[in-house]
Amino acid sequence: MRGIELGDAGIHPETLARMLRDGTLDRVTRGLYRLADAEIAPSQGFAEVAKLAPKGVICLVSALQFHDLTDQMPRRVWLAIGSKARKPKIDYPPTRVVRFGPRALSAGVQTHIIDRVSVPIFDPARTVVDCFRFRQYVGLDVALEGLHNVIRSGKAKPSQIVDYARDFRIWSVLRPYLEAVVVDGS
Fold first, then answer.
1. Cα separation of 6 and 12, whole Å?
2. Measured by CB atoms within 10 angstroms of the end CB, which terminus of the chain is less buried, N or C?
3. Is the domain of 63 the same as that of 22?
4. Nearest 5 degrees, angle CA 99-CA 175-CA 145?
5. pLDDT at residue 186 in the model
């Protein structure tokens, strides 16, 4: 929880300090706390980042991981923010920020509840297209793995991928890979 939310819940700053001293609460980062005995899920970092950057969207390798489309365990949470947005200062968990224009930041966003926190994450088809758009950062192998897994799992239809690829002007790059995966899968 954020410090402000604890205050709104009636927890006095002195009580918060005592809870930190006696080990009831852990300070995750500046202004963010969690119960010391709370079980930490792999997606816990997504909820923490969503609390610290409420206008951001979980993207790229982190979104692939959330949708079970990769075996990669990203060392940082990938976060999309607006092209003119102020970069959030997040000490923990490690975060990699990428900038998207207004239309790109709003297309294909799904909201998932992780540890009682609303976390915006790009849908599977959009995530795969973004991995091709940012292949120089995530690697072509990761983008191909995501494409293969999203088609095989049925979490996205080829037509959805085509629509996003055309919208984001990456269709000429993605087309041969999509055709190969679709032909290989049939």
1. 8
2. C
3. no
4. 70
5. 46
For residue range 92-130, what is the model confidence (pLDDT) as tens digits? 888 999 999 999 999 999 999 988 889 999 999 999 999
The whole-model pTM stands at 0.77
Residue 134 has a pLDDT of 96
Domain-embedded: residue 31:
yes
Domain assignment of residue 110, given as a range? 54-185
Q: Which residues of the chain have pLDDT under 50?
A: 186
Q: b vs e for 113-127, b when ≥16 Cβ sit within 10 Å of the residue's Cβ?
A: ebbebebbbbbbbbb
Q: Please give the single-letter amino acid code of residue 180.
A: A
Measured between alpha carbons, how far is 127 from 107 in angstroms, rounded to an integer?
Answer: 11
Per the CB < 8 A criterion, the answer to whether 93 and 77 are in contact is yes
Together in a domain, 4 and 73: no
Tell me how many domains the chain contains.
Answer: 2
Q: What does the DSSP assignment read for 53-92?
A: -TT-EE-HHHHHHHTT--S---SSEEEEEETTSPPP---S
Q: How far apart are CA 5 and CA 127, in angstroms?
A: 31
